[in-house]
Sequence to fold (178 residues):
Amino acid sequence: MAESGIMGARQTILGGVVMRGDLIIDGMVWDRATILGSDATQTIIRMLDRLNRRDLGGIMLHGTIIAGYNIIELDLLHQATSLPIVSITKQPQENLHEHLKSTFPSDWTQRWQIAQRNGELRSLALDSQSHMFVQSKGCRWDVVKGVIKRFTRFGGLPEPIRVARLFARAIVEIERRP
Fold:
């Protein structure tokens, strides 16, 4: 799953792809999440329900902090799906505590607690000299590393995330048309 948005919009587009181990795309789904909202986790759960697939091996996310600090709850997503969850970002969120406190004076503590429950970002360097930060739920670190390395072919993102970003961007472009 990955997002793409339009500057100044109230919602962002989340795109998801089902990608097999041989990199064949076997399904797609998209939805909207509220910018500055708190509906990202439920949106992803709804997307997965709409896919209606029982053969998924896990969920790969392009970060947990999307849509202006609409934070995905990894524990809740794992509990709702019983699937391993892997979140990958290229840059750790600097000064998250301060950003949340200044942007969300009424509910920053709730958002901060979600970010804390998501766990520490673990650093991962790939053979291609690419570097990323990873959070996961429901799977061992050695399995997480193996899956990421298996799916990362070009650049520094695994193919399911790269393709999901392209898909979300395509939906945004369609939405921009008059």
Remarks:
- The mean pLDDT is 94.
- Strands lie at 2-5, 11-19, 25-34, 59-61, 65-66, 70-71, 85-89, 122-125, 131-137.
- Residues 2-170 form a domain with the archaeoglobus fulgidus dsm 4304 fold fold (CATH 3.30.2170.10).
